[in-house]
Amino acid sequence: MQQQEKITNIIISNLSELLKKGNAHVSLDDALHGVSFDLSGKKIPGLPYSIWQLADHIRIAQRDILEFSRNAKYVSPEWPDGYWSSEISAQSDSEWQKCIDQIRSDRDSFIELLSNAKEGIYAPFEHGDGQSLLKEALVLADHNSYHTGEIIILRRLLNDWGN
User: Fold this and answer.
1) Integer Cα distance of 59 and 4 in angstroms
2) Is the pTM of this model over 0.85?
């Protein structure tokens, strides 16, 4: 195996771990674990989002990044309204669970895309303006970790987080 291929495999492995495990911080899966449907729709006075709105935003943005990365004809939602639910709560427990399941499924699809790309992770997309799969992976990890922190803060304020 050539040196560049080894480096690429290490990068892909590290990005995959970052997207799934969080590494230096709590993972998104852990942040959402045990959040009940009722709790997901509660708001804290003075804060703009509920856990549902944050999770749904993560779902929408992650799907956008995934589809942009694998489909040249994909059209992104309108910013910002297309990325945020105006509803404070999911309509049902099954909608809440479907959101969480789609976050995991789309993340796994993105990781599979990364794994299959090999050296192609560095190549700019023909349909973009300089984006590559590597850049989109970094954007996805950064975006999800930012909102994961917000979810944890909301859970703490709602007395639903650890200690």
Assistant:
1) 33
2) yes
What is the token pair recorded at 35? Answer: 């959040």
Three-state SS annotation for the chain: CCHHHHHHHHHHHHHHHHHHHCCCCCCHHHHHCCCCHHHHCCCCCCCCCCHHHHHHHHHHHHHHHHHHHHCCCCCCCCCCHHHCCCCCCCCCHHHHHHHHHHHHHHHHHHHHHHHHHHHHHHCECCCCCCCEHHHHHHHHHHHHHHHHHHHHHHHHHCCCCCC
Q: With 70 as the cut, is the pLDDT of residue 140 above it?
A: yes
Q: Distances in Å between the alpha carbon of 51 and those of 29, 41, 78, 111?
A: 13, 6, 22, 25
Closest CA to 160 of 16, 41, 1, 57: 41
- Tens-digit pLDDT profile for residues 73-92: 999 999 999 999 999 999 99
